Amino acid sequence: MTAAEPLLEVEGLTTTFDTETGELTAVDGIDFAVGEGETVCIVGESGSGKTVATESLTRIVREPPGRVEGSVRFDGRDLLTLSEPELRRVRGNEIAHVFQNPQEALNHCYTVGWQIVEALRVHRDVSEAAARARAVDLLDRVGIGNASARFDDYPHELSGGEKQRAVIAMALVGDPDLLIADEPTSALDVTVQAQILKLLDGLQEEFGTAVLFVTHDLGVVAQIADRIVVMYAGKVMERGDVLDVFERPAHPYTRRLLSCVPGIGGTDGGIPGELPDPRDPPAGCRFAPRCAHAERACRTGGQPEELAVNPGQRVSCVLYRDGWDPTVVRDDPLDPNPDPESNSDPDPESNSDPDPESNGVSSTDD
Question: What does pTM read for this prediction?
Fold first, then answer.
């Protein structure tokens, strides 16, 4: 891997599941990258495909019924082409996962220390005594007080924050180059959440680990992210530097997400409507049925290609194409509380594609 290449480069990642009612596409041809030592946040509502996308990277999605396709290049290797034994050497050693619910990630029949020792001995050829010493050191590093005594505690004897710290300690046993953290603070109160975020930041600085962080909490994103990937219904809506996306959000969906965050965009309280059925997604932009700015062109032709709106910031929206007027989105306040039903082309014939002789501006009724 050269200095210019990202640590992780994902192209055309698609994850489908065979169900009794038909094929379900949870992740639909997404691209993103993570550089060495960088923090990239994947954001979006629950059900957007964030977790499935990250679990697809190391193929911990059960196959079948799942099927993972595309390219996942990590440190020069395509993980989707590796054999299972080769992939096991990557999992835990080079890429580690911190799962959403530490209550389920820990086995309650065994002590926390034993579980860390077991993980260490899977990935490292060390004696049990050396593994125990390393496990105590890791528990101490993640902030569990009196670590040598807590080594023999069972998970039910730990608080929620301590369980999450123990799970992070388990993820660090192989000194991974990439840590995938899936909503690691969602079940914690705000005080413990802040402690966990500070812990991850300190560990990242100490070990130089890259972090792929999955969350729906844009307040957390504002604290930790270098770059953001905004997902909706299995597709990428927008991506870019965290400051660009927060200060100049381009996609209507990104703006609506920000409008739900008090102190960032507004106090709107939610986005009208529901995510589409992944077995039968909309023909055009996935967000069009809920978008107050949707035009006729938004409802056909698949998800719009991503267009550059700033250096390093891209958006998948027809209103940024040549001949359209993106100010109908960007000039709106972040919390307009629009009703997409009342703004969605009451007369289908009145919102055709823009006339090339009409000064290059599409007509909208916002």
Answer: 0.86
Q: Nearest to residue 74, comparing CAs of 172, 168, 171, 177?
A: 177
Contact 35, 6 (CB under 8 A): yes
Residues 61 and 187 in one domain: yes
Asked whether residue 313 is domain-assigned, the answer is yes
Which residues, 6 or more positions from 312, have their beta carbon under 8 angstroms from its beta carbon?
Answer: 227, 240, 241, 244
95-98 and 178-182 as β-strands: parallel, antiparallel, unpaired?
parallel
What is the spatial distance between Cα 48 and Cα 215, in angstroms, rounded to a whole number?
A: 11
Structural domain of 139? 105-175
Euclidean distance between CA atoms 179 and 206, whole angstroms:
13
| Number of separate domains in the chain | 3
Predicted confidence pLDDT, tens digits, the chain (366 residues)? 545 689 999 999 999 999 998 899 999 999 999 999 999 999 999 999 999 999 999 999 988 899 999 999 999 899 999 999 999 889 988 999 998 777 788 899 999 999 999 988 888 888 889 999 999 999 998 889 899 999 999 999 998 889 988 998 998 888 899 999 998 887 677 888 888 888 888 888 888 899 999 998 888 898 899 999 999 999 999 999 999 999 999 999 999 999 887 665 555 557 888 999 999 999 999 999 999 999 999 999 999 999 999 999 999 999 999 999 899 888 777 644 555 554 444 443 334 444 433 333 333 333
One-letter amino acid at 248 equals R
Q: Round to whole Å and give the CA distance between 131 and 157.
A: 22
Last residue of a domain, one of 192, 225, 258: 225
